[in-house]
Amino acid sequence: MAKTSTEQNGAKTLSDQAYLKLRSDIIHGVLQPDEKLRIEHLRTEYGVGASPLREALSRLAADGFVTAEGQRGFRVAPMSEEDLEDITRLRILLEKQALCQSIEHGGDEWESQIVASFYQLEKVEESAERDPAEWEMRNHDFHEALIAGCTSKWLRRFYGILYDQHKRYRNIALSTEIPRDLHQEHEELRNTALARDKKRACDAIEHHILRTAEITQRVLREESLQKKEIA
Amino acid sequence: MAKTSTEQNGAKTLSDQAYLKLRSDIIHGVLQPDEKLRIEHLRTEYGVGASPLREALSRLAADGFVTAEGQRGFRVAPMSEEDLEDITRLRILLEKQALCQSIEHGGDEWESQIVASFYQLEKVEESAERDPAEWEMRNHDFHEALIAGCTSKWLRRFYGILYDQHKRYRNIALSTEIPRDLHQEHEELRNTALARDKKRACDAIEHHILRTAEITQRVLREESLQKKEIA
DNA sequence: ATTTGCAAAAATATCGATAAAAAACTTGCA
DNA sequence: TGCAAGTTTTTTATCGATATTTTTGCAAAT
After folding, report:
1. Which residues of A touch B (CB under 8 A)?
2. What predicted TM-score, i.e. pTM, was given to this entire model?
3. Which uninterrupted H or E stretch holds A68?
4. Using CA atoms, how far apart are residues B202 and B104, in angstroms rounded to an integer?
5. Which residue of A6, A23, A143, B77 shows the fewest CB atoms closer than 10 Å?
6. What is the C-alpha to C-alpha distance for residues B139 and B118, in angstroms, rounded to an integer?
7. Tens of pLDDT, residues A154-183
8. pLDDT tens-digit profile of A95-116?
């Protein structure tokens, strides 16, 4: 039976719901970098009490989406070019590692999921609408499929955080357009992974992440220039 | 002026204090793996209300020291050989990376701190008392000094979590003895770092971490054997 | 014009009480 | 005895209220 609309996802508690909603709003730029997060205001906005909100914010602080200073409350984590570069470099290191482990340990199920999720991603990339939200989902599924064979829980955990941090930059920078030439990179990624070619797969993933980061960075730089011109 | 005893450290709020105390108690085995963490019980034990406790537990869940299941409360994160191995492998990857960056970017201050912290560690290792708590602190300072030149915030963050997770295993497994031959590994580490020899420094750190993990794992295995014999 | 001091306002952190859920414990019945 | 349904107890999650701290606003003084 379908659950109530307030708990359609895996969120059993108000705290979880608040966590997921805040997280999503930060990633999608609804809550702007550095913005103050006043409990009283969020209370009315999200329709939950102070306790679950503070719990959610504490968790978000632990994975770097908000900053917390004692007696001064919370704010959305700032964004900067250095931070993007930092995230990018570490994401490359971890995703390479996870990919290598996957190539070593992945079985039939792993291969199937790569083929399937690549196909779904391809469909979105070539479709007329090119819905960015849909693309984000499929892109995430594809990357998850690639590293699904990785057995390290900690690697998965850290990678997940970095993926979402990266996603925040992508979303804010390129909220509308999907670069067309990402597709062939995904294809190379699929082929090298299925061929169990660690070296080339790692090169492909590094190149792919660097490329998207570069695009993001360029848009980010242009935006910050515009802001300075206004000021 | 000296602060009140309840806020001698950097903890400005009750939530922070509870977080640090719980964290420390988990790392030092005061709170056992898998142990249920009942709010009402902790309330009396730690002398704070439910709200700061829940915030602290939420944060601890985010960095993997406790597990949280909706409507079922919190418990101390379990320990296992697989988890130790997982932590060990990833810690090696990250500490190598951080060390390389340090060797590249570290300046005079970085070198000085390595020499200084190594000296302090050496003193404890060769002293008659061989106080494990003192050794833990000095060991931490030395490893921190080695990677102090690393400019990546995210790498530092993740490394910090893994270091403390590793420390939990160390503490529970070897709460009393300090293996004597760790000293020469530290020396090799200091020398190769100061010589700016990335390759050898990385080998040294890998070997060092693997060695301590092996010792820990052996003790862990013996303990779990004893438990099974009793049962 | 800038700073200083203080009072008012706002926001944070925390507590105590309560509703909701899960676990433990009966009790009735085959 | 075994076990299913209902009932009590325990525990979790959440709200509303309050004490404490920070920020703001404003007037007097340098």
Report:
1. 11-13, 15-16, 51, 54-56, 58-59, 61-64, 70-71, 83, 86-87, 89-90, 93, 97, 151-155, 157-158, 162
2. 0.94
3. strand A66-69
4. 13
5. A6
6. 8
7. 999 999 999 999 999 999 887 667 777 889
8. 999 999 999 999 999 999 999 9
